[in-house]
Amino acid sequence: MNWKKPWFQFTILLILAFVWGSSFILMKIGLKSFTNDQAAGIRMLLASLVLLPYSIKNLKYLKKKDLKSLLVAGFIGSFIPAFLFTKAQTQIDSALAGMLNSMTPIFTLVIGMIFYKTKLKWLQVSGLVLGLFGAIGLITSGQDLSFGNINSYALLIVLATVFYGININVVKARLSHLSGVQITSLAFFFTGPAALIYLLTTDFQPVLASPNWHIHFLALCALGIIGTAFAMLLMNSLIRHISAVYASSVTYIIPVFAIFWGVLDGEKINILHITCMVLILLGVYLINRKK
């Protein structure tokens, strides 16, 4: 694969944005039968099971010096945020969750500057600001968003974006010598048992009594296999070849695909949507400009 080609990197960003942009609706469907913790646990367990053959194959690459960073990638980068997001979506709108998720590049840059001596470039700052405004514009253009719904649960998503920022910087700075498959499979090798142990402590009787629970379970399967395992394989592979801030800018593009989901569901697209999309793409371009 042409990981060093700018066009290919941007294509991967678009794929990730599409996959993660679909995660909110999958979580919403899964929560119809499952508790928020069960939904998160199932998501992580399925992702770990899909990656298990690769985990076993890559155990020979597991070094003591990488253990701490791999635990960060597994638990800080995926496991804990999965629980934070499903918990938050029990009390706040999906649109608001999407907007708060767009704070990831900000925390990625700040954490990188403080702990990893990331050099500050004004083009990157300009791109961050443009992308943030574009993302906020897309989300606030929806009729269902109510800022009156902002509560303490919104802070859970803010915390998740902090964790994402930590994870992206750690993978970039400490694990670039490993491939994306090695990073992801070894990280999820540790999260799988934790998810399984937790799920065994929960009560699935109410789930089985819920109508259409199997359909809701399929949504969680898609969330775990495609929205987590496959997406993290792409993300960890991409981080090795681009800047941490550019990688995190995928959260700016996610609302773009949320708009397309809305169009497919009968919503109309207007000039504001198009303007915000242009701002986002321009922001991502500026973040990745070399000069």
UniProtKB/TrEMBL annotation:
Entry keywords, A to Z: Cell membrane, Membrane, Transmembrane, Transmembrane helix
InterPro entries in the record: AA-Vitamin_Transporters, EamA_dom, EmrE-like
A Pfam match: EamA
Domain of life according to the entry: Bacteria
Organism whose genome encodes this protein: Paralabilibaculum antarcticum
Transmembrane segments: 7-27, 39-56, 68-88, 94-115, 122-140, 152-171, 183-201, 213-235, 242-263, 269-287
Protein's UniProt name: DMT family transporter
Primary subcellular site in the record, as a coarse category: membrane
Domain EamA residues, every copy: 12-139, 153-288
PANTHER family: INNER MEMBRANE TRANSPORTER, S-ADENOSYLMETHIONINE_S-ADENOSYLHOMOCYSTEINE TRANSPORTER
Keyword Membrane assigned: yes
